[in-house]
Write a structure and sequence with these properties.
Elements lengths: L13 E2 L10 E2 L2 H5 L1 H21 L3 H8 L1 H13 L1 H5 L7 H28 L5 H25 L1
Antiparallel strand pairs: 1-2
Amino acid sequence: MPPPLLWATTRHAIALPIDKHKTRYGMTPLPRRLGHLFCVLVLASLATILLGRFLMRPLLLPLALRFGLKPVLIAGTIVSALQYPVLATVHGIGPSLYLLIGVSAVGDSLYWTSYHAVFASLGDAHHRGQQVGVREAMAAMIGIVAPLLAGWS
Protein backbone atom coordinates (compact mmCIF):
# COMPACT_ATOMS: atom_id res chain seq x y z
CA MET A 1 0.00 0.00 0.00
CA PRO A 2 1.50 3.39 -0.92
CA PRO A 3 2.15 5.94 1.82
CA PRO A 4 -0.56 8.55 2.38
CA LEU A 5 -0.08 12.00 0.90
CA LEU A 6 0.90 14.69 3.36
CA TRP A 7 -0.78 18.11 3.20
CA ALA A 8 -0.11 18.57 -0.49
CA THR A 9 -0.82 22.17 -1.26
CA THR A 10 -1.87 23.51 -4.61
CA ARG A 11 -2.85 26.96 -5.68
CA HIS A 12 -6.54 26.45 -4.94
CA ALA A 13 -6.88 23.71 -2.34
CA ILE A 14 -5.27 21.80 0.48
CA ALA A 15 -5.56 18.04 0.10
CA LEU A 16 -6.23 16.23 3.35
CA PRO A 17 -3.87 13.36 4.25
CA ILE A 18 -5.33 10.54 2.20
CA ASP A 19 -4.27 7.52 0.26
CA LYS A 20 -3.30 8.04 -3.39
CA HIS A 21 -6.01 5.66 -4.57
CA LYS A 22 -8.84 7.37 -2.71
CA THR A 23 -10.68 10.49 -3.73
CA ARG A 24 -9.20 13.82 -2.70
CA TYR A 25 -11.25 16.01 -0.43
CA GLY A 26 -10.13 19.55 -1.14
CA MET A 27 -10.75 22.49 1.12
CA THR A 28 -11.23 25.81 -0.59
CA PRO A 29 -9.42 28.77 0.93
CA LEU A 30 -11.14 30.50 3.83
CA PRO A 31 -12.08 33.74 2.06
CA ARG A 32 -13.74 31.81 -0.74
CA ARG A 33 -15.76 29.66 1.66
CA LEU A 34 -16.85 32.31 4.11
CA GLY A 35 -16.77 35.28 1.80
CA HIS A 36 -14.51 38.26 1.79
CA LEU A 37 -16.62 39.90 4.48
CA PHE A 38 -15.01 37.68 7.12
CA CYS A 39 -11.53 38.91 6.21
CA VAL A 40 -12.68 42.51 6.14
CA LEU A 41 -14.19 42.20 9.62
CA VAL A 42 -11.05 40.63 11.06
CA LEU A 43 -8.85 43.30 9.54
CA ALA A 44 -11.24 46.02 10.71
CA SER A 45 -11.04 44.66 14.26
CA LEU A 46 -7.23 44.67 14.16
CA ALA A 47 -7.23 48.18 12.70
CA THR A 48 -9.54 49.36 15.48
CA ILE A 49 -7.17 47.92 18.10
CA LEU A 50 -4.27 49.79 16.48
CA LEU A 51 -6.32 52.99 16.36
CA GLY A 52 -7.13 52.61 20.04
CA ARG A 53 -3.44 52.11 20.85
CA PHE A 54 -2.60 55.23 18.84
CA LEU A 55 -5.23 57.30 20.67
CA MET A 56 -4.21 55.93 24.07
CA ARG A 57 -0.51 56.79 23.84
CA PRO A 58 -0.80 60.53 24.63
CA LEU A 59 -2.52 59.61 27.91
CA LEU A 60 0.41 57.46 29.04
CA LEU A 61 2.87 60.25 29.79
CA PRO A 62 0.69 61.83 32.51
CA LEU A 63 0.07 58.38 33.99
CA ALA A 64 3.78 57.54 34.00
CA LEU A 65 4.68 60.91 35.56
CA ARG A 66 2.05 60.56 38.28
CA PHE A 67 2.48 56.88 39.20
CA GLY A 68 5.85 55.89 37.71
CA LEU A 69 6.78 53.50 34.93
CA LYS A 70 6.81 50.33 37.02
CA PRO A 71 3.16 50.61 38.21
CA VAL A 72 2.07 51.46 34.65
CA LEU A 73 3.95 48.40 33.40
CA ILE A 74 2.28 46.22 36.03
CA ALA A 75 -1.14 47.63 35.15
CA GLY A 76 -0.42 46.98 31.48
CA THR A 77 0.50 43.38 32.27
CA ILE A 78 -2.74 42.84 34.18
CA VAL A 79 -4.93 44.49 31.53
CA SER A 80 -3.15 42.55 28.77
CA ALA A 81 -3.82 39.32 30.65
CA LEU A 82 -7.52 40.23 30.78
CA GLN A 83 -7.67 39.89 26.99
CA TYR A 84 -7.76 36.10 27.24
CA PRO A 85 -10.87 35.68 29.42
CA VAL A 86 -12.63 38.29 27.29
CA LEU A 87 -11.55 36.48 24.12
CA ALA A 88 -13.25 33.32 25.37
CA THR A 89 -16.59 35.13 25.33
CA VAL A 90 -16.33 36.39 21.74
CA HIS A 91 -18.60 34.42 19.41
CA GLY A 92 -19.14 36.99 16.69
CA ILE A 93 -19.74 40.66 16.25
CA GLY A 94 -21.23 42.08 19.41
CA PRO A 95 -20.49 43.63 22.79
CA SER A 96 -17.87 41.04 23.74
CA LEU A 97 -15.87 41.79 20.58
CA TYR A 98 -16.06 45.52 21.30
CA LEU A 99 -14.90 44.87 24.86
CA LEU A 100 -12.00 42.76 23.54
CA ILE A 101 -10.97 45.55 21.17
CA GLY A 102 -11.01 48.08 24.03
CA VAL A 103 -9.16 45.88 26.51
CA SER A 104 -6.56 44.95 23.88
CA ALA A 105 -5.94 48.57 22.93
CA VAL A 106 -5.60 49.77 26.53
CA GLY A 107 -3.53 46.79 27.68
CA ASP A 108 -1.13 46.86 24.75
CA SER A 109 -0.65 50.62 25.07
CA LEU A 110 0.05 50.48 28.78
CA TYR A 111 2.32 47.46 28.57
CA TRP A 112 4.43 47.96 25.47
CA THR A 113 5.05 51.68 25.82
CA SER A 114 6.15 51.42 29.44
CA TYR A 115 8.05 48.16 28.77
CA HIS A 116 10.25 49.79 26.15
CA ALA A 117 10.80 52.86 28.35
CA VAL A 118 11.77 50.72 31.36
CA PHE A 119 14.08 48.49 29.34
CA ALA A 120 15.79 51.47 27.71
CA SER A 121 16.31 53.16 31.08
CA LEU A 122 17.89 50.05 32.65
CA GLY A 123 20.74 49.77 30.16
CA ASP A 124 23.80 51.98 30.08
CA ALA A 125 23.82 54.73 27.48
CA HIS A 126 26.90 53.51 25.63
CA HIS A 127 25.70 49.92 24.98
CA ARG A 128 21.93 50.52 24.90
CA GLY A 129 21.53 49.70 21.19
CA GLN A 130 23.50 46.49 21.54
CA GLN A 131 21.46 45.47 24.60
CA VAL A 132 18.17 46.11 22.82
CA GLY A 133 19.45 44.12 19.82
CA VAL A 134 20.39 41.16 22.02
CA ARG A 135 16.97 41.25 23.71
CA GLU A 136 15.17 41.30 20.35
CA ALA A 137 17.35 38.47 19.00
CA MET A 138 16.57 36.38 22.09
CA ALA A 139 12.84 37.08 21.72
CA ALA A 140 12.99 36.05 18.05
CA MET A 141 14.83 32.82 18.87
CA ILE A 142 12.35 31.97 21.60
CA GLY A 143 9.53 32.60 19.13
CA ILE A 144 11.12 30.12 16.73
CA VAL A 145 12.26 27.42 19.17
CA ALA A 146 9.29 27.34 21.57
CA PRO A 147 6.72 26.05 19.03
CA LEU A 148 9.19 23.42 17.86
CA LEU A 149 9.79 22.21 21.41
CA ALA A 150 6.07 22.27 22.17
CA GLY A 151 5.43 20.09 19.13
CA TRP A 152 7.68 17.35 20.50
CA SER A 153 6.15 17.30 23.97
